[in-house]
Amino acid sequence: MSGWCLRSAVAFMAVTLLSLGPAFASGEEVSVTLQMPSGDSAEAAYWAGDPDMPAILIQHGFLQTHHFPTVRRLATALADAGYSVLTHSLTLGIDRRTASLPCEAVHTHSMPQTRDEIATWVEWLHEQTGQEPVLIGHSAGSVNLLDYLAHSPGAPVGYAIFISVTFFGYGEVAFESPEHAARARAALARNDPGLEKFALGFCHEYVTTPAAYLSYYDWDKQRTDQAFQSIGVPSTLIAGSGDDRIDLEWIETLRQHGAEVRIVDGANHFFDQLHEFDLLDEIEWALQRQQAQ
Amino acid sequence: MIRTRIPSITHYALLLAAVALVTLAGFGLYTWHQVDQLRGEIHESAREAARQELANALERVRTQAAQQASRFARWEEVRQQLGTPQYYGYWKNHRMHQAGILADRVLDAQVYDHEGVALANSDTVHLPGMIDLPPPDPRAVRGDSEPLLMVIEAIPPINGAQAPPGFVGLKSRFLDALREGHVFRFIDPESIRFDFGEQHAIPASDLVGHARFDLRPNPMADQVEELLSGAVINLGGILGIITLALFATLVYLIVRPLRHISGHIDRLRKSAGGLVLERVGGVLPIAETEKIRESLNSYQAQLQDVHSSLEEKNREFWRIAHHDALTGVRNRRAFDEYWDTLPRLAARHTYPVCFALFDINHFKAINDSYGHPVGDAVLQAVARNIDEVLRDGEHLFRIGGDEFAAILLDCDQSGARSLGERCLERIRMTDFNRFGVREPIKVSIGMAVAPGNDEASLLAMQWQADVAMYKAKRPGSSHVVIFTPELAKDTQGLYSNWINNAVYEAVTRGTGIRMSYQPVIALDDRHASYVEALLRIEHMDEVIGPADIFPVVEARRLEVDLDRAILNRILRDLRTSQIPAGLGISINLSGPTVVNSGIAQWMEAFVPFLQDRQIILEVTETALITEIGQATENLQQLRQQGFQVALDDFGSGYSSLRYLASMPVDTVKFDISLIRSLDSPDQHQIVESLVQMIADAGYTTVAEGIEAAEQLRRVRDLGFNFAQGYYLGAPAPLSQGLPPALPASAGTGRT
């Protein structure tokens, strides 16, 4: 799968770059479209940075796009700081998806499909910069990155930062429940791939197939905790003390399990308002520290 | 000629009001028509604006529908359906409408693949399972309850591809959007509807042509129209009221006073006067009508004064016109008028009516003898006496110089005779000496009586009274004569047509004149007998005597002409010697001939015959006293030519010795009445004395009417120079030879 994806991405990117120019200009945002393994194309924003500075891939949260404000502000700030930054949108089963996908939409995407798309973009960034990129995930996007890292032990990733990380599967701030998971599993058991309404994350009504549902639901607190412990990439967790969408106690548990946790005092889940600078400071501090190591 | 009836002022006022009202109505209708036309233009303008408004609204709806379709086509979840069509049905049923992408008015939407085939699991009933490619333009289709707008939109291609990856179709209600999404100023949005006719679908761009709608009430236009209509109606009403008020005012102020004045004038025309026109203006008097009223009253007062004066004058004029100024009795005009009314007046009664004629005997002689003042006094006295005899209500009329007439109602023959005799007695008892008249004044009265209800008889009374008068005038007759049929026979000559014709022929042509000669015998040796020429007229073997001839001649004033015809006839007899030489001849001349200025010339032809005979011209005293001055002058001239003059019928009339003394007379012929008086013991002495006195005065005397030997002896004894009468010889034509008494003395020449 990795070989096909790479060829496809290179071929598609070549076509796209022809329209953009012979090379990426430093510090300028360019749009990048890559065809994903599913056949759909995905879009991304890319800033070519200082070759001596780390390349960064930023993954948006659940059902969002790379235009999500928290992601967008972080990307531009890092690009301004001289980093090569790539922030992309998952297709979620929609060709050239540009808008966030509502909970009520039909969700045909799954965690594996997301994993493949992240792999495609990591490989593209790696190819583009010759560096092992730093992966930054926001919210559920951190889970996507953990899934990717967990299933790609040799991935060319140098460092990972998980911002406002959370988990699926009956969390304290989520709506999914074991009953939904049980219903999905029962459907799978009777080989019923039809769409059903479930609750997932902050979505009360989430229409998807049982398999796709479970692919997210199974990334519960425990599996996430295990993923942090198992991935071979150094990482840092950044959370806001005012974030009511995550389980701060669980974050603290992760710290106890060896993860580096940085808590921004007063910041909420999206680090908006003045906390975006605190977030940037924390990331730059982490990157500089990682670069120094 | 047809008389045109002149309209009254009311008609003109009505006509004026009618013309004003018709003009107002015409102007109102014209204005109303203009308002209606303006209303139509406003309505048409509003309809055009509404049509444009609807077109704009439909365009907006189409644009919204297109935008809706475009937004739907660009929706990423739609492209998601193209990638995962297996979930299209669920998505369509559970997601498509709930996502908020489609408006509520979108009844249905459909996603088609690049070949125009609807994605699987579509249970749409509104949109077709397959669309034509390229997709048709938006169109409207029939719906169950309202028309629907169907739009097919291509899903935008990605990755630089030319062909669209698929299509979307939307079917929407648009009527509500049309109604609610646009502010209609001209259209009542609830009235918008579309007529598809027989078609199932029509292009959306043609919807305007199939739209039906009602115009929204235009308050401004309606208000303007209402104002205009109201203004027209109010103006018409006000002007109509003003016109009617003016008409009423005109009638009240002008027509009514004029009618009042006109009626007053009509009443004045029918009344005897004394009417005063009261104020005619009512509570609103007008100076002009008041002026007319005052002028009319003043004029009426003056007119009344004039009328009174005229009435007085008329009465005076009538009195003058109907009364004789001298005697005070009614005149000829009054008589004629009364006579005309007599048949109608008498027809109402059955009593007899009497008509009386009064004539003063020899009044001319009185007039000439005593002068006109005396004659007038005699006339006045006679008229007064007769009038006093008449009963109340009976009038005496002076119908001629000395002729009077009276018409007496309810008067039979005895009453008439009694009246006549009372009149005679009254006159006889009157003392005329106080006027200086010594002779007795006598009156002849001719009367006729007829039934009052017999108009023909009434009308004949004048003629009958004339006849009776003629009889009364005759010597020896009673002075009161009432007409009888026998009298008519006696005076037939006066009234016989053939006698009239014969006399007229004799006078004008000299035909029929046959002279008879009666001997006048000399009673002594100093005189020679002669003959008196007497007139006879032969006509159709009839001989007309003097009794019939002279009334006709006198009535028709033919005396002069007759005398000249007689003179010519005698002259012919003389010239033809039918009258023997030496035989004297006596010729009667009428009064008019005697006073004619040509008498001397006419007698010139006789002068040669005076050589061997005497020619005596006989005139009556009545003829002489008619114009005694002219008569005396003419007779003197004739005497100077050698003619002798004899006074005929002396004693039958006035026999005034004063007349006789003043007249140029040679011979006095005593009337038969005097000769007969010789037989009367109490009168013969007077006559004998009279004869002696006249003879002593130097006149030659002739005794007429000798009818017996005793009479001849007596007159011979009385010393008459001549005697004449049937005893001595009747008148006879010369063809029968001279009378036997003549030959002895004929041709003995004159004394």
CATH superfamily of the largest domain in chain B: EAL domain
Which CATH class of the largest domain in chain A is shown? Alpha Beta
Largest interface: A-B, 18 and 15 residues
Q: Strand count, sense and closure of the main sheet of chain B?
A: 8 strands, mixed, barrel
Mean pLDDT of chain B: 83
N- and C-termini, Cα separation of chain A: 33 Å
Fraction in beta strands of chain B: 15-25%
Number of DSSP strand runs of chain A = 11
- Based on Cα principal axes, name the global outline of chain A: globular
Number of helices of chain B: 25
Helicity level of chain A: 40-55%
In the sheet with the most strands of chain A, the strands line up as: 1-2-4-3-6-7-10-11
Q: How is the topology of this model organized?
A:
The complex is a heterodimer of chains A (293) and B (751).
Chain A: H1 2-20, E1 29-35, E2 41-47, E3 55-59, H2 69-80, E4 84-88, E5 106-107, H3 111-129, E6 134-138, H4 140-151, E7 159-163, H5 178-189, E8 196-200, E9 203-208, H6 210-217, H7 221-230, E10 235-240, H8 248-256, E11 260-264, H9 275-292
Parallel strand pairs in A: 3-4, 3-6, 5-9, 6-7, 7-10, 10-11
Antiparallel strand pairs in A: 1-2, 2-4, 8-9
Chain B: H1 9-74, H2 76-83, H3 88-96, E1 106-113, E2 139-141, E3 148-155, E4 166-173, H4 175-180, E5 187-194, E6 201-203, H5 207-210, E7 211-215, H6 219-270, H7 287-322, H8 332-347, E8 352-360, H9 363-370, H10 372-389, E9 396-398, E10 403-409, H11 413-428, E11 443-451, H12 455-473, E12 480-482, H13 485-490, H14 492-495, H15 497-509, E13 513-522, E14 530-539, E15 542-544, H16 546-555, H17 559-575, E16 584-588, H18 591-594, H19 599-602, E17 615-620, H20 621-626, H21 628-641, E18 644-650, H22 657-662, E19 667-670, H23 672-677, H24 684-696, E20 700-703, H25 709-718, E21 722-723, E22 732-733
Parallel strand pairs in B: 11-12, 14-16, 16-17, 17-18, 18-19, 19-20, 20-21
Antiparallel strand pairs in B: 1-4, 2-3, 2-6, 3-4, 5-7, 8-10, 8-11, 9-10, 13-14, 13-21, 13-22, 14-15
